[in-house]
Every structure is written in structure tokens, then in C-alpha cells.
Task: inverse folding
């Protein structure tokens, strides 16, 4: 069969789990207004031939937004390709739901591949993949948070782990897969990729190195992982470099202060949580269930009187508990590390908890020979019930609300220009666009004989000026550094509205205001191209297995 039966089962279950969204379109969630706005424009630009759209010309009432200089593109590429395949026939709300279904299904496929590589029986691998698809926080990401980009990271994490395992086993092109998957991780969701890079990824690399049993192969393996990771970051430079170096364009500090301060969301400090807190109680219930299940796995492994450290199940149980301790706030200094303090929500680590938790359950010794482990596992199931019940009620409420309310697309205030006057203490969608509501497309002072602007595709403008004296021209576009004027004149930002402005000389002149790549973009593309060349060279060099692997393959053939 071209399509494996288990893949069809995963697709069917994923469709059932997302049925409310597939039937009604994108449901109301925390980020659904932004998802609708960004997906519509990203796909339009993609179909117009801009394969990596970074600016959104219709955002902020036509003043333009640099959202995808900072927001990762992979999930929106999936949606853009779907818009091409379907000839843009689906409304954006339904298309996004179908894109989410694709991501959910792919996450099950990659989890199945990971569990098979870990030695799980076909039936157990399918059960684990189904559990990953239906994992509570995974669905919470979709229905409550509308975290579309983070939703994509679920599909990539198993591939990263699989690549590490293949590299440790000396499998051909294992490091290449690691480089590609690690590049995809930040381009799916940057905060999640940072947390994965500081927790489960180094832990698993160290564990697999230790399992090799000798210093020389362990060092060689870790060096290959390190080089693959560096190449992965190089490939991701097309996104990472602009995202990390251009934050002076926007009020980036609003991303991790107040509501977004990471210390406000520890599971052990519920008095700091912001209302409404129903989602936090659901996450707490899920976390408690995984913690108890991890203890059950450790008890079960210990009962078999085998080395705890030799057990894959025990490793993943410990990983699960470590991440839960971080989410709870047991190790608060971790969240003060550079960049980690800017991930906003410690419970973003739940993606690792669910991945590790499902992996440990699939690899643990079945049937349980320890009555204590059985009892602990029952307690875990009981702990999960309140959270699941509350989440189902919340999904039902959102589905009912979506039947009567039309979700209005909206932008995110964090992508306004850095010095634009915003409403103090306003919500993330309170854009404070009143002052620019009546601003004309073009204004000239002193008034010349001719002052005209004509809209061009992608938010660009054709400008004509006929002035008797130097004239200050103000255009209704937010002044981000990607704007260029042709013929070239210096551009400036007006105060306080941060609009594009320039001084036109005496005489009649025609100008074109257009986008151009900023230096960080160009450097990012150069680094990505260099990394790709090195990766292709690695592919060529890795065509023949190394001697140890060749001997292993010969023994297997015999």
C-alpha cells in the first residue's frame, strides 16, 4: 500500500479530534484573530510569488506590519501551500482548520516513526502515536490557545529525537536529518525550540553518548551532533537572524513583561496567575497526571531489578519529571537565564512533557509486574480526569460561541513600530490606531503643485511630487527600515506616529516606495546558503558507512 494503514488510522482519529474546527471553521481562541489575519495575507503573498513573506501590507489598517520578520513561518507555509493546492477555494477560517489537521496528522506520523526506532512493537507504536495526537496539552494548544505555530512544533520534536538516535546508532545520514529537523524547530516556534534545546535535547544526547559505553565513540557522536546542530542553526538563519537582531524595530519588551512575565505562570504559584485561570487548572491537572505516571514507570522499572540507568523508559520518565519541576517553578533560576526569561510561559515545556511521557509509557515493561506501579498509574489516570472534563467543557463552549459570533481578524500590538504611542497597559490586541485613522495616503508640506500617491501591489506606493520648494512628504505607511525610495532619498519616521517621511527637492519627480531586504535578511540567506553547501558536502561524504557500521550490517546480513 502506498499509504500505510496505521497512517490512515492516525488521519481518521486526527479528523475526529478536530471535528469542531473542521465543521465550523477556526474556533474562538486566544490567538485566532491573529491567525486569521496572518494566514490570509501570508497565503496571498505566497501565491503572488513571494515565497517567504515577511511584511503584511494590509495589517494595521493598511500601514503594514513586519510580523514575519519575527514570527516563524513553517506553520503558515503549510497553510499557504494548502491555499495553492485548493486554488484558494476555501475560506481562511476553514483552511486554517484543515492546515491544523495536517499538522496534527504529521505529528502522529513522526511520533510513530520515533517509537518504532526506539524498538516499540508496531501495535505499541500506533498506540503511542495516537496518544501523542490526542495528548491533552496538544489539543489545548489548538482549542484554547490557538497556538498555531507551537502546534507545528509537535510534529518536529519526534524527528529531532529520531535523528539523535540514528546518529548514535551510526546510521547513514543521521546527522543530516538532525541538521534539517533542528533547523525546522525554531522556524516552527522559537520559544519552544529554545526550551527543547536546553532540556530534552542535551539530556538525550548525553544519555545516548553514555549508552555507547566508550569514550571515543561517545565523543565522536557528540561532535557529530554538535556540528549537525550548528548547521541546523545556520539553515534557520533566514528566520533567526532577522528575528533576533531587528527587535529594536518593535516594542519587543512588551513580549515578556506584565502578563507575559514567566514567573507569573509557575504551577506552584497559582496566586500569581491572571484571570481567567481555567486553562491553568487544566494544565495543572495534566501535569499532575504525567508526574504520577512517570513515578509509576520508575517503580515498574525498579521492580524488574534491572539497572535504572540502562532503561530507556526510566530515562524518559526522569526527563518528564525534570521538565515538570521546571514548569512548576521548583528551579526558578532556570527561568532567569538569558533568553529563557523571554519565553513568556513555562508551561510551553508541556510539549516535552507529553513527548517524554508518552515515550516512557510505550517503552516501559508491560504487563506491569509491580502492584505498586499499577496503583500509581491508576492514580495518574484519576488525576487527569478533572482536567480533561474541564477542557471538553471549554471546547464545547468555544464551539457554541463560534456559531453565534463572527471572529474578526486582528493584529498584534507588539508588531507596531517601537515608538508608536500605544495605550498604557492595553491588551495584546488593543492597537491604539485612533491617531492614524484619518491620516491620508500622502500629505505634503508646504503644499506643492502636485502631491499624489497611487497604491501598488504589496503595500508599495507610486508617488508624484511637483514642488516649487523643498517639500516634506509623509506617507501612510509605518516607517520600518525595509522601505526604500527609488530614486533614492533618505527616509525618516515622523513623530509620534512613526510614518514614512522624506523631503522632496524642487521640481517634478516620481518616486516608488518599495520593500528591500535589510542587511540581517541578506546575511541570514548567506549563512543559510553556506550551511546548505556544507550539509550537501556531508551528504556526499556520508554515502559510505563507516567501518563499525559496515561490520554491523555484515553481521545482520549473515
Result:
Amino acid at each position: 500500500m502506498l499509504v500505510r494503514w496505521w497512517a490512515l488510522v492516525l488521519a481518521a482519529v486526527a479528523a475526529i479530534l478536530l471535528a469542531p474546527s473542521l465543521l465550523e471553521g477556526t474556533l474562538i481562541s486566544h490567538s485566532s484573530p491573529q491567525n486569521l489575519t496572518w494566514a490570509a495575507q501570508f497565503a496571498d503573498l505566497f501565491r503572488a510569488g513571494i515565497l517567504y513573506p515577511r511584511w503584511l501590507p494590509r495589517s494595521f489598517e493598511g500601514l503594514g506590519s513586519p510580523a514575519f520578520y519575527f514570527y516563524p513561518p513553517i506553520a503558515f507555509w503549510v497553510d499557504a501551500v494548502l491555499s495553492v493546492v485548493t486554488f484558494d477555494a476555501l475560506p481562511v477560517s476553514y483552511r486554517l482548520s484543515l492546515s491544523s489537521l495536517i499538522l496534527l496528522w504529521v505529528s502522529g506520523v513522526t511520533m510513530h516513526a520515533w517509537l518504532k526506532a526506539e524498538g516499540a512493537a508496531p501495535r505499541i507504536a500506533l498506540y503511542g502515536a495516537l496518544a501523542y495526537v490526542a495528548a491533552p496539552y496538544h489539543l489545548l494548544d489548538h482549542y484554547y490557545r490557538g497556538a498555531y505555530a507551537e502546534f507545528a512544533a509537535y510534529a518536529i520534536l519526534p524527528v529531532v529525537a529520531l535523528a539523535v538516535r540514528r546518529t548514535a546508532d551510526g546510521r547513514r545520514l543521521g546527522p543530516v536529518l538532525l541538521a534539517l529537523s533542528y533547523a525546522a524547530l525554531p522556524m516552527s516556534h522559537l520559544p519552544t525550540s529554545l526550551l527543547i534545546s536546553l532540556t530534552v535535547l542535551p539530556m538525550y544526547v548525553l544519555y545516548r553518548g553514555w549508552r555507547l559505553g566508550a569514550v571515543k565513540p561517545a565523543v565522536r557522536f557528540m561532535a557529530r551532533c554538535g556540528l549537525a546542530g550548528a548547521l541546523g542553526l545556520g539553515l534557520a538563519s533566514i528566520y533567526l537572524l532577522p528575528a533576533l537582531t531587528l527587535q529594536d524595530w518593535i516594542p519587543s519588551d512588551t513580549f515578556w513583561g506584565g502578563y507575559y512575565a514567566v514567573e507569573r505562570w509557575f504551577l506552584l504559584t497559582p496566586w500569581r496567575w491572571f484571570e481567567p485561570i481555567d486553562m491553568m487548572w487544566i494544565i495543572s491537572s495534566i501535569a499532575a497526571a504525567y508526574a504520577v505516571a512517570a513515578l509509576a514507570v520508575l517503580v515498574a522499572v525498579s521492580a524488574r531489578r534491572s539497572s535504572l540507568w540502562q532503561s530507556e523508559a526510566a530515562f524518559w520518565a526522569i526527563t518528564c519529571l525534570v521538565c515538570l519541576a521546571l514548569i512548576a517553578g521548583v528551579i526558578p533560576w532556570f527561568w532567569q537565564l538569558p533568553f529563557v526569561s523571554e519565553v513568556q510561559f513555562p508551561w510551553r515545556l508541556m510539549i516535552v512533557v507529553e513527548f517524554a511521557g508518552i515515550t516512557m509509557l510505550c517503552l516501559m515493561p508491560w504487563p506491569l509486574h509491580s502492584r505498586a506501579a499499577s496503583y500509581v498509574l491508576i492514580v495518574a489516570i484519576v488525576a487527569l480526569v478533572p482536567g480533561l472534563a474541564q477542557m471538553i467543557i471549554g471546547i464545547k463552549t468555544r464551539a457554541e460561541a463560534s456559531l453565534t459570533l463572527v471572529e474578526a481578524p486582528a493584529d498584534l500590538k507588539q508588531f507596531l513600530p517601537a515608538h508608536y504611542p500605544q495605550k498604557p497597559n492595553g491588551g495584546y490586541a488593543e492597537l491604539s490606531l485612533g491617531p492614524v485613522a484619518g491620516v491620508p495616503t500622502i500629505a505634503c508640506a508646504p503644499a506643492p503643485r502636485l502631491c499624489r500617491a497611487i497604491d501598488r501591489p504589496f503595500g508599495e506606493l507610486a508617488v508624484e511630487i511637483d514642488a516649487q520648494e523643498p517639500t516634506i512628504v509623509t506617507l501612510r505607511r509605518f516607517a520600518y527600515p525595509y522601505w526604500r525610495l527609488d530614486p533614492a532619498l533618505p527616509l525618516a519616521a515622523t513623530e509620534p506616529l512613526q510614518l514614512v517621511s522624506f523631503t522632496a527637492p524642487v521640481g517634478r519627480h516620481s518616486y516608488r516606495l518599495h520593500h528591500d531586504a535589510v542587511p540581517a535578511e541578506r546575511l541570514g540567506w548567506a549563512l543559510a546558503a553556506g550551511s546548505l553547501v556544507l550539509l550537501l558536502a556531508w551528504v556526499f561524504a556520508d554515502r559510505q558507512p563507516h567501518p563499525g557500521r559496515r561490520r554491523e550490517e555484515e553481521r545482520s546480513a549473515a
In short: The beta strands are 442-445, 450-455, 461-467, 471-478, 483-486, 492-493, 499-504, 507-515. The first strand starts at residue 442 and ends at 445. The chain is about 55% helix and 10% strand. Residues 438-515 form one domain.
